[in-house]
Structures are given as structure tokens and as C-alpha cells.
Specification:
The structure is a single chain. By secondary structure, the protein is an all-alpha fold. It has one domain: Up-down Bundle (Na+/H+ antiporter like fold). About 80% of the residues lie in helices and about 0% in strands. It is built from 15 helices and no strands. The protein is globular. The protein starts with a helix and ends in a 7-residue tail after the last helix. The mean pLDDT is about 85.
Length: about 325
């Protein structure tokens, strides 16, 4: 257990540092937006490009991982989306946002640093594959259902989602990295070094931003929804992805040990940091912010427990 704490404690100490410094006024929300923009526009694209461009294409495009993550995320999404209507009578848009909170991981800011300390460079591949699933499968699904619930057309929402992908630096980095890997293009040493420097900023700066973004969030009057999302995200999502790993093995697409551990670890991370921003468009930023606060705080215990179970060999694998 001590080794597990050595992995998880520094991650959450950096989150706590961001929270404390913003709470004390040493950093403000405008500075956080600048730091977050740096990670999204420079750090993460550099990390993704490096992870993909420097490995053989067969190692990068892992169908088993993509299938397990997509299957687990879709199952979790629709379980919450359908059950919230049957059990609590919520409107479609609210059900969509609750489902998003349980099936979209903060792969870049929390999942990746943990997987990096646990598994090493394979974490970069897992991050790139997660982003492919989230951007090509989960995000268009979310927008189509949410916009139709808000009176917008599904086709229009899908077109808008895919048009946005073309302007996303992370997606561009994935495409270029895959191209370099496929063509086996040699990269100059100075370029690789520059990319490496940019990628090193992702973990510390991203964790600091997550901590600072929690300042000012409140759970008052929203604890029931917060509990649903937290339980679904921290328990249901990793269980669903674990089931996806078994499904891929049954389909003759087994994952190697490092990638299957990465998949479950990524799924155990809290929801993506822009969750309240996505919900703001539909007037649901309050419940989304409360859910993100509670889930992020609880994730330290849940992820530590998960890693301890994985290390002890308690989790059965196909």
C-alpha cells in the first residue's frame, strides 16, 4: 500500500496546492485559464505527438484498447441516461449531462499522470487512444442527444462536433503523430527534444489547474445528483471498462497487461475538467460543478484502493 500512496499522493498534493494558492489569492481564475490554455494548446499536443510518432503504428492503433474503452464508456453512458428517466423522471438534457459525468474521464490531467507513474511511457499511448474514443464517439453522441433535447437538430449538432475536431490541436497532433508513425519518418533530435520539453509540463500544470478550478464550487442542495455521478464515475465506469477488456478478449482482441491496467486506471479518473463548461450551455453548471468537486475529492481514496487491488492481483483478467 505504501508504494501505491507514493504514486497517488503526489498527484493529489499538486491538486491541493492549486486549490490552496487560488483560495489564498496568489493565483486567480484568469491565470488558471492561461495555464489551462497552455496545456491544451501546447503541452498535450506535444505529448500526444511524441507518444505516437516515436512508436510503430501497430503498437499505437490498438483495436482492443479502443474497443474496451468505447464499449465501457457507452455502457456507462446509457445506463445512467436511461435509468435517470425511469427512476427519477429527469428531462433529456439533464440526463445527458449526468451520463457525461459518469462516462468521460479526465484522462489528460489526472488519468495520465497516475498511469505515467504506474506504467511509464505506455501511458501516452493510452491517453491518445482515450482522446480518440472521447472525441470521435462520446462527444458527438453527447452533443446529438443534448442538442435534440434542447430543441436543436441532431444532424446539425453532429456536424458542429466534427467540424470542431478539425480545429482541435490535440486531434491534429494525433493525426500528425499517426502519419509520422505510419510513414516511419525520422524526426530531427532538436525537434524531439523541444516536443519532450513541452510534454513535461502537462502533468504538474494540469494538476495545478484542476485544483484551482475547484475553488468556489459548492455542493449545497445538490448532494444526491453529486452522489449518483461520483459513484457512476469512480466505480461504475472502471467496472464497465474492465468488462470491455473481457469482451475484447472474447473477440480475440486481448490487451497486453500494461494497456489493460491503463484502461481501467484512466476510467477511474474523475470527469473531464470542462464538465461544468459543457453543462453551462444548458443551464446545468451548478449540478455539474458540484459533481466535479465531490468526485475529484473522493477519487483520491477510490483510485488508491483500485491501484492496491490491481497490485495485489485481486482483479481477475482474461
Amino acid at each position: 500500500m505504501q508504494q501505491i500512496f507514493i504514486i497517488t499522493a503526489p498527484i493529489y498534493l499538486f491538486i491541493a496546492l492549486g486549490y490552496v494558492l487560488v483560495r489564498r489569492g496568489l493565483f486567480g481564475k484568469p491565470e488558471l485559464r492561461v495555464l489551462g490554455r497552455f496545456v491544451l494548446q501546447i503541452g498535450l499536443p506535444a505529448l500526444l505527438f511524441k507518444s505516437l510518432a516515436t512508436r510503430p503504428i501497430g503498437e499505437v492503433l490498438n483495436a482492443g484498447y479502443l474497443g474496451a474503452m468505447a464499449a465501457g464508456s457507452l455502457v456507462m453512458f446509457f445506463v445512467v441516461f436511461l435509468s435517470c428517466r425511469a427512476l427519477r423522471g429527469k428531462e433529456r438534457t439533464e440526463r445527458v449531462m449526468l451520463a457525461v459525468g459518469t462516462s468521460f474521464s479526465n484522462s489528460a490531467y489526472i488519468g495520465y499522470p497516475i498511469a505515467l507513474h504506474l506504467l511509464g511511457p505506455v501511458a501516452g499511448i493510452a491517453l491518445a487512444l482515450n482522446l480518440l474514443v472521447e472525441n470521435l464517439v462520446m462527444l458527438p453522441l453527447m452533443l446529438a442527444l443534448a442538442e435534440s433535447g434542447a430543441g436543436q437538430g441532431r444532424i446539425r449538432a453532429l456536424k458542429s462536433a466534427f467540424a470542431g475536431l478539425l480545429r482541435n490541436p490535440m486531434v491534429v497532433a494525433i493525426v500528425v503523430g499517426l502519419g509520422v508513425s505510419l510513414l516511419k519518418l525520422p524526426l530531427p533530435a532538436p525537434l524531439l527534444r523541444a516536443v519532450d520539453i513541452g510534454s513535461l509540463a502537462v502533468a504538474p500544470v494540469g494538476l495545478f489547474v484542476i485544483g484551482g478550478s475547484l475553488v468556489g464550487l459548492s455542493t449545497q442542495g445538490l448532494r444526491r445528483d453529486m452522489a449518483i455521478v461520483a459513484a457512476g464515475k469512480l466505480i461504475g465506469h472502471p467496472l464497465a471498462v474492465w468488462g470491455g477488456v473481457w469482451l475484447m478478449a472474447a473477440l480475440a482482441l486481448p490487451l497486453e497487461p500494461a494497456l489493460r491496467t491503463a484502461a481501467v486506471t484512466m476510467a477511474a479518473a474523475p470527469m473531464l475538467g470542462i464538465y461544468p463548461i459543457l453543462a453551462q450551455k444548458y443551464g446545468l453548471e451548478g449540478p455539474a460543478a458540484a459533481a466535479m468537486l465531490g468526485t475529484t475529492m473522493a477519487s483520491f481514496a477510490s483510485i488508491t484502493l483500485l491501484l492496491a487491488l490491481l497490485a495485489a492481483g485481486v482483479v481477475p483478467w482474461p
